[in-house]
């Protein structure tokens, strides 16, 4: 099929490149060196901006955890509820924000949300009551709910199937980096002594200022799609569009939105992804909220706990990069999920078995348990590679994040029974085993869908000439069609 479709992407261009090829009638094809050069520029313009967005988001998510050891005046069940409020805001706003986002330029909407959430985060420094903390965290959840679905759209617009997982891995590896940077920042702030401006207040103010700065950068510099890449030369824009022309994923937003949304609702693969996200988010959220508390029960001091958070983040980031690189290299979007989760299963088993054992063994189990946070990167790369249609892709991303928020909300409430936390640990182990099983089912369904596509394409090839198929494929690639509507779209299991 690639050979057939590739004949259709000889696009007209007004320049002749020394390394490229210029055919008759001004038909231009870029060289491999040109495409690699433009890819590096895309990484600077797109990947750098989105990495900064994720760094900001994860710093905010971990801020509450670090604030607990910096004299945060919210403790006990009130702390659980404040942690829960973030996910409540996320759940309530994740679908409406996608509808609103379609009415604005993507960089403006994403950057605007970043700026507002930076202001709200800084305002947490003046919150004094439980209600104020609860409402501010809920508003932060609502503001941040636009990030991941919009990321899928930008990644799909600029990167090919063999590049998506690695880039998403870089974004998600910011999670581990924040655990290092956030821990070091909180550790430094723990030495500040000011009765009027406490350590946790400084933490919220500094992170809020950083979010506002990132929001301004995103608004001014993040391109939404190759044809809207204002800072690029015309030739580079063309090459950026040519690079993804074989992906059969149009950058137009003109399809039947209702039809695409209904198709997403009836797609069992998206439901499986939602369930996997829900299950995977439960233990990850629990660790985000309670890992410092766990370490405290092992006998470590508050300052030591802040430093010990770093290695857990680095392990998760390393695993994210490993499994996503493997996913791109092998063009496998399902089995790497198992690879990402397996160490965490071992970790939760260790935590269950060593609840009263040596604290170093418990710490090792905690580090291993945190590795499963790398699995969402593979799930999002699956959506980027296997879901087409502007509305369907946005809906799928929002649905997966809605499910993850539900799991995260539940994760804030599963550890309430004292030092051992045994029921919660057992629940985390069970849901991860179920998630691994679901990933195998997802693989079987995706392979079956691709086999049906290949069979239909074979029948089509018997009826049409190669030139007719090339023209049809080119038209499909430039139309806002879903993966099911486009006969030339190929699934990656």
Automatic annotation (TrEMBL):
Q: Which PANTHER family match?
A: PERMEASE-RELATED, TRANSPORTER, PUTATIVE (AFU_ORTHOLOGUE AFUA_6G08340)-RELATED
Instruction: Name the Gene Ontology molecular function terms of this record.
Output: transmembrane transporter activity
Q: Where in the cell is it found?
A: Membrane
Transmembrane stretches in the record are: 42-59, 79-96, 108-126, 132-156, 168-189, 201-222, 270-293, 305-324, 336-354, 360-383, 395-415, 421-442
Is this entry keyworded Transmembrane helix? yes
- Report the membrane topology from the UniProt record: Multi-pass membrane protein
Q: Taking the first listed entry, what is the main subcellular location of this protein, grouped into a coarse class? A: membrane
Q: List the PROSITE patterns.
A: MFS
Q: Which domain of life is it from?
A: Eukaryota
The record ties this protein, via Gene3D superfamilies, to: MFS general substrate transporter like domains
Looking at the record, the residues that make up the Major facilitator superfamily (MFS) profile domain are: 29-451
Which Gene Ontology CC terms are recorded? membrane
Designated name of the protein: Major facilitator superfamily (MFS) profile domain-containing protein
Keywords on record: Membrane, Transmembrane, Transmembrane helix, Transport
């Amino acid at each position: 099929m690639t050979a057939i479709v590739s004949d259709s992407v000889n696009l007209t261009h007004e320049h002749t490149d020394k390394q490229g090829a210029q055919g008759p009638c001004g038909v231009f094809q870029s060289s491999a060196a040109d495409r690699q050069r433009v890819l590096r520029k895309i990484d600077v313009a797109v990947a750098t901006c989105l990495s900064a967005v994720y760094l900001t988001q994860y710093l905010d998510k971990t801020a509450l955890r670090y604030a607990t050891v910096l004299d945060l005046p919210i403790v006990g069940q009130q702390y659980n509820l404040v942690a829960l409020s973030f996910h409540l805001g996320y759940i309530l706003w994740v679908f409406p924000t996608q509808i609103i986002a379609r009415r604005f330029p993507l960089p403006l909407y994403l950057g605007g949300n970043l700026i507002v959430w930076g202001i709200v985060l800084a305002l947490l420094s003046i919150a004094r009551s439980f209600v104020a903390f609860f409402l501010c965290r809920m508003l932060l959840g609502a503001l941040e709910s636009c990030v991941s679905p919009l990321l899928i759209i930008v990644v799909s617009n600029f990167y090919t199937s063999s590049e998506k997982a690695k880039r998403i891995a870089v974004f998600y590896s910011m999670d581990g980096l924040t655990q290092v940077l956030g821990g070091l920042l909180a550790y430094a702030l723990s030495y500040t002594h000011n009765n009027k401006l406490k350590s946790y207040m400084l933490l919220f103010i500094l992170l809020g200022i950083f979010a506002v700065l990132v929001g301004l950068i995103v608004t001014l510099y993040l391109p939404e799609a190759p044809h809207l890449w204002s800072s690029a030369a015309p030739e580079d824009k063309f090459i950026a569009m040519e690079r993804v022309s074989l992906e059969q994923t149009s950058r137009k937003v003109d399809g039947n939105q209702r039809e695409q949304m209904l198709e997403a609702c009836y797609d069992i693969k998206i439901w499986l992804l939602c369930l996997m996200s829900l299950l995977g988010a439960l233990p990850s959220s629990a660790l985000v909220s309670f890992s410092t508390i766990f370490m405290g029960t092992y006998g470590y001091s508050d300052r030591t706990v802040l430093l010990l958070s770093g290695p857990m983040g680095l392990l998760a980031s390393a695993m994210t990069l490993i499994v996503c690189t493997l996913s791109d290299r092998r063009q496998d979007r399902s089995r790497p999920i198992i690879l990402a989760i397996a160490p965490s299963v071992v970790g939760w088993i260790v935590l269950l078995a060593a609840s009263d054992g040596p604290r170093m063994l418990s710490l090792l189990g905690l580090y291993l348990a945190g590795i499963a946070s790398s699995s969402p990167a593979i799930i999002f790369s699956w959506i980027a590679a296997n879901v087409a249609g502007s509305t369907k892709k946005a809906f799928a991303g929002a649905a997966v994040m809605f499910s993850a928020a539900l799991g995260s909300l539940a994760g804030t409430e599963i550890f309430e029974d004292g030092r051992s936390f045994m029921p919660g640990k057992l629940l985390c182990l069970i849901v991860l085993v179920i998630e691994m099983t679901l990933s195998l089912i997802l693989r079987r369904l995706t392979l079956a869908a691709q086999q049906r596509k290949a069979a239909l394409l074979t029948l089509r090839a018997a009826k049409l000439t190669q030139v007719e198929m090339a023209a049809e494929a080119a038209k499909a690639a430039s139309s806002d069609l879903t993966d099911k509507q486009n006969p030339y779209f190929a699934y990656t299991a």
